[in-house]
């Protein structure tokens, strides 16, 4: 397997979308030293939500997992926009997942694996990360999933 994250994405048949502009008073990514924090990203595909609704309701766990993967692609688009090259990622430190769900839904971890599995596929062992996944009553625009991230990056490409 290639060591370059861009090559790994290509081998998976995936391309990064254009980084979405913030929709409120925040910035999409903040770098401080070798740390890059990426704000929560929704499962936008071609500028539209992949799905709307709640897990345990209209959204299946499988579709939720696909949404989590789409969220991570949007996270990576923000990384690319912020630092110019995914090869500068030394480590995916942490992912945070928010799952809009019914009170009875309990498959949060399986849904968030859509993002976590992709992080490992793209970055190899450097993609293994700490993670929190929580269920919430709603998310912006009725999105079913939102993912935020923390990366360690190298100083220069």
From TrEMBL:
Entry-linked SUPFAM superfamilies: YjgF-like (SSF55298)
Record-annotated Endoribonuclease L-PSP/chorismate mutase-like domain positions: 7-145
UniProt cross-references to InterPro entries, sorted A to Z: Endoribo_LPSP/chorism_mut-like, RutC-like_sf
Pfam families per UniProt: YjgF_endoribonc (PF14588)
Highest taxon in the source lineage: Bacteria
Gene3D superfamilies cross-referenced by the UniProt entry: RutC-like
Signal peptide from the UniProt entry: none
PANTHER family referenced in this protein's UniProt entry, alphabetically: ENDORIBONUCLEASE L-PSP_CHORISMATE MUTASE-LIKE DOMAIN-CONTAINING PROTEIN, ENDORIBONUCLEASE-RELATED
Protein name in UniProt: Endoribonuclease L-PSP/chorismate mutase-like domain-containing protein
Source species: Kozakia baliensis
